[in-house]
């Protein structure tokens, strides 16, 4: 922690990330008070006054207005005449929400299964390790697209709860599954070495059950590895969400996310490059600041951990 | 006749053919390849079976089909059979080379063979680029660790890692393609018909695909180099009076390349197997990855199965080749 506090760059980028998150959370306020429109409201036939002149929001040839740098259409409009700035904030909310839920799911799965495999050893470990290997070897984008398309078509019915096709939880669920072996494998290896330590023997002699030992002795000692992986998974989850949405297997229209916004912009090239640049730059800034912070955390806690991003 | 020995279980290593380490290694990798292919195909088949509304017969019969027509398609394609029979039949056709896709009803394997040239071009060019620049940047970073060059290269690497490839691709297409008309706007030209056209068409995809990997490789190599530099034998080499360049290349770099070689094999195989879906889609290369994306979108199970098998095969095969090469280069590495 002391090392971390001394890294000024890491702190500056952590602050930038927090600022982006706060802005996205304030999306409804911006939409209501400043832009006076919602993320999915079309203004395709309207005009807006720029420097005293009335300008079409979307020109007769279908080219949307570029950034006005004013309250309305601050960052321009998209081809449906929707306010890009408003969609950027709402889209950021969706992207970050998906990344957060996916990371939570990845960490829970990895901690539970990794600890179990490492502590139990034997046949259970063999089975779980093969499961990690298979999910890990299955190309992330392919698995994500397959699952995303599969679930987006008809939703999923898990008995206890049902997800509809357009639910944000579907990409979050897919990304969580895709990334969990990256964390479960190192956690398993770590748990495997921890179980031979004296304090674990002591707990066993005390007569505590394996579950209690895992919860109170093993998992707390995995904390440093877990902390190193959290920012890396968040960063990669944001990137994978963008990739899935670009391929139509992530967030479903008209719900915005940074990935779907970039994809919409690419379809309009060379018409309105701001539709690609605005969400793209914000996405890169967000992921970059998480990565800088993750680097600093890793240097401070565990110089050897690494996650391979394959997107 | 009395004393014919029962066919005892012979451990693999006892057979004379599999006694050499290389042969044993290959046998073991082949066994794991079969296991991986089996699980991955079963998994793929199950995922697509579980899709609600994914009944292929309904889609194939068309929008205005009567229930009777749907039933006919179902019987004709064997969708009425139990799932394990369907799986076995599909696998049989795949291994025969005669598997037909659901959506376009064309031979899947021929389609993939047609899509391979752009994908292989992409993998080769990008693989060379990211290995070259990854090693160069990693080496420079480690030699100047803590200095301004290290910081600059680290920032560049982190930016690369933080960039979605399709965003980078779109920016390049817009400026290099539309604005300045320096490079063609996507598509693929075969090397055999027009080498220069092939090169200019592939340039942007190569760069877009390698940027992320250059970032990853240079970071991994930098960390490895710094680890190795603190080893005793490096101090010994310096103490012997070897030049700094010789210590760096012969003693430090050579011993830091193992993880890079493994990573490279995996990533290369993954591109060959159609894993570069995003890059192929942005630049409209028409390769295996794009075929994969289309097939998944159409819920075309046979095509998706063949592509996942191709990826798994490429990953295991190229991984094995990298391991063998590495064992040849580094006497400390054993094939096990």
Description:
The complex is a heterodimer of chains A (311) and B (336). With 311 residues, chain A is mainly alpha-helical. Chain A has one domain: MetI-like (MetI-like fold). In chain A, 67% of the residues lie in helices and 4% in strands. Chain A has twelve helices and four strands. Chain A has helices at residues 2-6, 8-25, 27-35, 84-120, 122-137, 140-154, 169-194, 198-205, 210-221, 223-246, 258-268, 274-301, and strands spanning 47-50, 53-56, 156-157, 162-163. Chain B is mainly alpha-helical and 336 residues long. Chain B is built from 14 helices and no strands. Chain B has helices spanning 21-49, 56-61, 67-77, 83-96, 108-143, 148-161, 165-179, 195-229, 232-239, 244-253, 258-272, 277-282, 288-297, 301-329. In chain B, α6 crosses α8 (195-229) and α9 packs antiparallel against α10. Chain B starts with 20 loop residues before the first helix and ends in a 7-residue tail after the last helix. The model of chain B has no long low-confidence stretch (mean pLDDT 83). At the A-B interface, α5, α6, β3, α10 and α11 of A face α1, α6, α7, α8 and α11 of B.
Task: Compute the separation of the termini of chain B in Å.
Answer: 41 Å
- Structural shape of chain B: globular
Give the largest chain-chain interface (CB within 8 Å). Answer: A-B, 52 and 54 residues
> If you consult CATH, what is the topology of chain A?
MetI-like fold
| Mean pLDDT across residues of chain A | 83
> Care to count the β-strands of chain B?
0
Elements of chain B, N to C (H/E): HHHHHHHHHHHHHH
* Sheet of most strands of chain B: none
Largest sheet properties of chain A: 2 strands, antiparallel
Report, as a whole number of angstroms, the end-to-end distance of chain A.
Answer: 31 Å
Radius of gyration of chain B in whole Å, from Cα?
A: 25 Å
Number of helices of chain B: 14
How are helices and strands ordered from N to C of chain A? Answer: HHHEEHHHEEHHHHHH
Mean pLDDT of chain B: 83
- Relative strand content of chain B: under 5%
Structural class call of chain B reads mainly alpha
Low-confidence stretches of chain A: 303-311
Oligomer: heterodimer
**Overall CATH class of chain A:** Mainly Alpha
- In which range does the helix fraction of chain A lie? 55-70%
């Amino acid at each position: 922690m002391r090392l971390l506090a001394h890294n000024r760059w890491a702190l500056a980028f952590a602050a930038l990330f927090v600022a982006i998150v706060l802005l996205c959370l304030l999306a409804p306020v911006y939409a209501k008070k400043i832009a006076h429109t919602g993320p999915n409201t079309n203004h395709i036939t309207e005009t807006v006054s720029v420097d005293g002149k009335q300008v079409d929001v979307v020109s007769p040839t279908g080219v949307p207005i570029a950034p006005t740098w004013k309250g309305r259409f601050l960052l321009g409009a998209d081809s449906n005449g929707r306010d890009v700035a408003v969609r950027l904030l709402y889209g950021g909310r969706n992207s970050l929400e998906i990344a957060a839920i996916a990371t939570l799911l990845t960490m829970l799965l990895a901690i539970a299964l990794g600890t179990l495999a490492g502590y139990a050893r034997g046949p259970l470990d063999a089975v779980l390790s093969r499961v990690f290997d298979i999910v890990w070897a299955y190309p992330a984008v392919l698995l994500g697209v397959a699952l995303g398309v599969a679930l987006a078509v008809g939703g999923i019915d898990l008995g206890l709860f049902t997800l509809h096709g357009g639910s944000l939880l579907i990409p979050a669920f897919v990304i969580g599954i895709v990334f969990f072996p990256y964390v479960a494998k190192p956690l398993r290896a770590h748990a495997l070495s921890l179980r031979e330590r004296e304090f674990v023997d002591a707990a066993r002699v005390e007569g505590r059950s394996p579950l209690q030992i895992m919860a109170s002795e093993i998992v707390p000692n995995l904390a440093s590895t877990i902390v190193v992986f959290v920012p890396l998974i968040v960063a990669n989850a944001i990137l994978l969400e963008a990739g899935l949405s670009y391929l139509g297997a992530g967030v479903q229209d008209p719900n915005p996310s940074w990935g779907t916004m970039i994809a919409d912009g690419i379809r309009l090239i060379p018409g309105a490059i701001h539709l690609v640049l605005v969400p793209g730059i914000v996405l890169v800034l967000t992921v970059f600041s998480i990565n800088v912070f993750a680097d600093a955390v890793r240097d401070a806690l565990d110089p050897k951990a690494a996650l391979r991003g394959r997107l | 006749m009395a004393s014919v020995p029962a066919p005892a279980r012979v451990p693999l290593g006892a057979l004379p053919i599999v006694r050499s380490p290389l042969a044993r290694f290959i046998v073991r990798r082949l066994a794991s390849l079969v296991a991986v292919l089996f699980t991955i195909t079963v998994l793929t088949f199950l995922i697509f079976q579980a899709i609600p509304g994914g009944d292929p017969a309904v889609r194939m019969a068309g929008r205005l089909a009567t229930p009777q027509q749907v039933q006919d398609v179902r019987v004709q394609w064997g969708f009425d059979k139990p799932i394990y029979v369907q799986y076995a039949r599909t696998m049989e056709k795949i291994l025969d080379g005669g598997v037909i896709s659901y959506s376009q009803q064309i031979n899947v394997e021929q389609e993939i063979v047609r899509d391979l040239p752009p994908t292989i071009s992409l993998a080769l060019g990008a693989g060379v680029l990211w290995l070259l620049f990854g090693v160069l940047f990693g080496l420079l970073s480690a030699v100047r660790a803590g200095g301004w060059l290290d910081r600059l290269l680290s920032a560049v690497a982190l930016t690369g890692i933080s960039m979605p490839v399709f965003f980078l691709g779109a920016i390049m297409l817009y400026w290099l393609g539309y604005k300045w008309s320096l490079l063609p706007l996507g598509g693929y030209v075969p090397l055999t018909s027009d080498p220069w056209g092939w090169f200019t068409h592939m340039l942007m995809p190569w760069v877009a695909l390698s940027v992320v990997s250059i970032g990853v490789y240079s970071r991994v190599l930098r960390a490895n180099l710094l680890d190795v530099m603190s080893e005793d034998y490096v101090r010994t080499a310096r103490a012997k009076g070897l030049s700094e360049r010789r210590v760096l290349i012969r003693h430090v770099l050579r011993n830091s390349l193992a993880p890079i070689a493994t990573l490279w094999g995996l990533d290369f195989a993954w591109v060959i197997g159609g894993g570069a879906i995003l890059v192929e889609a942005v630049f409209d290369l028409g390769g295996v990855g794009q075929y994969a994306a289309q097939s998944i979108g159409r819920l075309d199970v046979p095509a998706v199965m063949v592509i996942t098998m191709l990826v798994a095969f490429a990953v295991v095969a190229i991984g094995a080749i990298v391991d063998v090469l590495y064992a040849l280069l580094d006497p400390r590495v054993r094939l096990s």
